[in-house]
What we know:
By secondary structure, this protein is α/β, with parallel strands linked by helices. 30% of the residues lie in helices and 25% in strands. The strands form three sheets. The protein has a seven-stranded parallel sheet, with helices on both faces.
Amino acid sequence: MAQKIPATIVTGFLGSGKTTLIRHMLTHANGKRIALIINEFGDLGVDGEILKGCGDETCTEDDIMELSNGCICCTVADDFIPTMEKLLARDVKPDHIVIETSGLALPQPLVRAFNWPEISTQVTVDGVVTVVDGKAVTEGRFAHNVAAVDAQRQLDENLDHETPLSELFEDQIACADMIVVNKTDLLEGAQAESLVAQLGRESRDSVQVIKTSMGALPVDVLLGQGIGAENDLSSRHEVHHHHHEDGGDQVVHVHDHDEFESFVVTLPEISDPVAFAQKAADVIRDHDILRLKGFAAVAGKPMRLTLQAVGPRIDSYFDRPFSANEPRETRLVVIGQAGLNQAVITEALQE
Length: 351
């Protein structure tokens, strides 16, 4: 019997650094042929654009498949399974499949999908990697039970109320085989060690908790865990979400993302990247935006500027030249909880 192709699921909250982690992995793949399935939240395929071409012969543009019809954990039958079938039907099979979920996805339904007959004989889940924004978690913005928030709760009982963000975070931790604490360069050494220890206590036994910055992990650490997670579903159950039978053999996922929304803002060239980043940070603060990401054209510069922000922290770098037929414009995805004032945010970014 042919050996199953290993697949790694990379999950984590909005802006935790999943795409950066995968980009580093592709540029250090050591000849391993990797196929990517990317699930974006928003209409502009930013993550896919960032990753295209960065793996050269180990991950060509044809090896990158994007799912944009909704959260991957809610579209398993309609979107994910057909994509996997198309990938597995190729004459040249990948050595490894990496799946980047949207920041709003639960990993458990995706792991369960690997037991579907269409793929169970050909692919196994090598491991589930949950990427954590170390700085954000220590500030208590995406989890309700970190030490910093516990101290604040003694002063304000309202902080005891869980939010959808904290529930998503807990479910992603509950399913992880490896937890990558990213952005530790923004933390003091003691903060990073405390967070690693805490996540180790809160996760399942034998889960690895690893520190990094800019997603820089050796490919041999990230891939090749050999977990077979689809055979270990009972230990990685959802903490806050439940399922019901649909009367057949399939399990239907009950999950609602109506509390989040996204839209695209299109702008002309910008003249000053530093000033624009500062303005964007102000808009993010003023409107409680969770994530802003996209690309910008800078006047007089042939290279495209990539912008990625989680909260008011914005990272930017020039990634590639604009092609001859590519419009020199700025396009940004804005993601936040429901109720964003799209017109006001768009106008503020245009000023």
